[in-house]
Automatic annotation (TrEMBL):
Gene3D superfamilies, A to Z: HUPs
Organism in which the protein naturally occurs: Sphingomonas swuensis
Record domain DUF218: where: 19-161
Pfam families: DUF218
InterPro entries: Cell_Envelope_Assoc, DUF218, Rossmann-like_a/b/a_fold
Organism lineage string: Bacteria, Pseudomonadati, Pseudomonadota, Alphaproteobacteria, Sphingomonadales
Name the UniProt record assigns to this protein: YdcF family protein
Length: 174
């Protein structure tokens, strides 16, 4: 059953290092990351500090009702938390998971970066990893160890959303 596969994929965390951690975008509130996005950014920072990656690649463009790209908000957050500017890559055009990864792949190619850890929420990992594989990316999962989706109700709602979007991707490629 797909729901079980989605849940199980969220428990898989890469044990090896990579050139970059791709932190998938999420909502922002003004110029601050949403709680979900903040957890992703924090996990990326932890991967960098533990030397599992050499750089962070923040993804996400300007969403509806916002004036700044998600990746720019993440970059500013990382700089405030001590990440050196040379360790940050961004793409500012994407608005979907597939576009996050498509644009991230272009940034990786332009910067001679070969391998990636993909950072997102555990229940988002199966779809993100499928998309990365379909794009030919050398990527492994690194789900956030903490999530804003803590209650059973919140997790169930997120899982239902992922079931829909995973199947939508399989059918449409988007």
């Amino acid at each position: 059953m797909l729901a079980i596969q989605i849940y199980q994929q969220g428990k898989v965390d890469a044990v090896q290092s990579a050139d970059v951690a791709i932190v998938l975008g999420a909502a922002i509130h003004g110029v601050k990351p949403s709680p979900v996005f903040e957890e992703r950014i924090r996990h990326g920072l932890d991967l960098y500090r533990s030397k599992k990656v050499r750089k962070l690649l923040f993804t996400g463009g300007i969403g509806e009702g916002t004036r700044v790209a998600e990746s720019v908000v993440a970059r500013r957050y990382a700089l405030r938390h001590g990440l050196p500017e040379a360790a940050i890559l961004t793409e500012e055009f994407s608005r979907t998971t597939r576009a996050n990864l498509f644009e991230a792949r272009k940034v990786m190619q332009a910067n001679d970066v070969d391998s990636a850890l993909i950072v997102s929420d555990p229940l988002h990992m199966k779809r993100a990893m499928r998309m990365a594989a379909d794009l030919g990316m050398a990527a492994e999962p690194s789900p956030t160890p903490t999530s804003r989706y803590r209650s059973w109700h919140a997790k169930a709602a997120f899982l239902m959303r992922e079931l829909y979007f995973y199947n939508h991707y399989l059918i449409t490629g988007q």
